[in-house]
Amino acid sequence: MNKEFEDYLLVRVQENDDSRTKDAMAYSLMNGGKRVRPMLLFSVLEGYGMDAHVGYPCACAIEMIHTYSLVHDDLPAMDNDDLRRGKPSCHKAYDEATAILAGDGLLTKAFEVVLDSECSAKQKVALVKALSWYAGIDGMIYGQTLDLQAENDTNPTFALLQEIDHYKTSKLLTLPLVCGCILANKFDDIDHFRKIGLVLGLEFQMQDDILDVVGSEEVVGKSLSDEDNHKVTAVSLLGLEGAKDMVKSYDETIRKSLDKVSCDVTSLTKVLDTLLKRTY
């Protein structure tokens, strides 16, 4: 991700009154990360012939929401992970209470930041609604709920896994695609990008499951705790080779779906290529 956007993230997360919570927010937001969601948003805007700077507030907001979800995911009551992005998790670097507040702060700050987007009032309302819906109780949070419930499932199925990944991962990968359409005022393309985002999330999470088996904590940058936490994963259900074959199938579906959107997908395709070949 370009330095200019990283600088923008840092300014937005540090612009409030000094506090331990603000420090923890900045620690988590600026602690590396692939910035996948901003890249997706910027590539959609580029496809519509727009400057990436238009998407900075929205991309920042999405990244804040994503980071909050990771901070809370790592808590002892959730996945109890001590490592995130190659460094101590927020609750290990600070403390559990501060990590909870840091997650809360990032989530609420996101809605302030997205309203700084340079677009019409109608578009701003659509952006706020999209952030709320895709990250909320019918979106990512529902996926986290299903994920926790599945830890005690003695007979997990691939259908259950897909439902978890649909909500927990696909929703926040669909969000930047949808927001790109909103910022470009291309609402007719939203349904097409929703379908692409769904499959992209399934592919992305399945790659994570594979990396959890074949990777190392040093390279992947987080605790490889799925097996210890009795998580339902693609590898546990399909086997390693079966999961790899499914990733290829998902990717083919995404590429075919790109033909239906009205923007130039050259930049988006490059991002997808990078995600497909990732090792962390």
Automatic annotation (TrEMBL):
Keywords: Isoprene biosynthesis, Magnesium, Metal-binding, Transferase
Molecular function (Gene Ontology), one example: (2E,6E)-farnesyl diphosphate synthase activity
This enzyme's EC code(s): 2.5.1.10
InterPro entries, per the entry: Isoprenoid_synthase_dom_sf (IPR008949), Polyprenyl_synt (IPR000092), Polyprenyl_synt_CS (IPR033749), Prenyl_diphosphate_synthase (IPR053378)
Source domain of life: Bacteria
Swiss-Prot/TrEMBL catalytic activity: isopentenyl diphosphate + (2E)-geranyl diphosphate = (2E,6E)-farnesyl diphosphate + diphosphate
GO BP annotations listed: terpenoid biosynthetic process
Cofactors demanded by this protein: Mg(2+)
A GO CC annotation given for this chain: cytoplasm
PANTHER family in the cross-refs: FARNESYL DIPHOSPHATE SYNTHASE
Similarity comment: Belongs to the FPP/GGPP synthase family.
Xref: NCBIfam families: FPPsyn (NF045485)
The protein, known as: Farnesyl diphosphate synthase
Protein's organism: Holdemanella biformis DSM 3989
